[in-house]
Amino acid sequence: MADHGAGAVMCLSTLENPSPAATALGVFSVVFSTLVGIPQAYKIHKLKSARGVSFLTLGLGNIGGFLYVLNLVILHYNQITLSLSRDFRFWLAAQRSLVFVWVELFNAF
Length: 109
Fold this sequence. Notes:
Elements: H1 5-10, H2 20-35, H3 38-47, H4 55-75, H5 77-83, H6 88-94, H7 99-108
C-alpha cells in the first residue's frame, strides 16, 4: 500500500485557477446562499412571531453550522493563509480559488 500522506497534505496548499464558468457558478451560489434565508426572515418579521420555528432545530442547526465551518477552515487552512500572505490585490485575486470556501460559509449560515 502506497503512502499518500505528503500528497494529501500538499493538495490544498496552492491556489487554484478555476475556469470562468466555475467562477460564475460560485458567485451565483454565494448570492443564492445569501438570499435563501430571506423568505423565512420576512415571514417572521411580517407575523411578528416565530411561532412554529423549533428552537431545538435552530440550536442544532447552529451547532452543526459552526462545526461545518470549523471543518471547512481546517481543511482549507493552507489556502486561506496563502491568500492572506501578500497584499490586498493578491487576496482579491486569490478569491477565485477560495470561492468554494465562501459558498460553503454562506450555506452554513
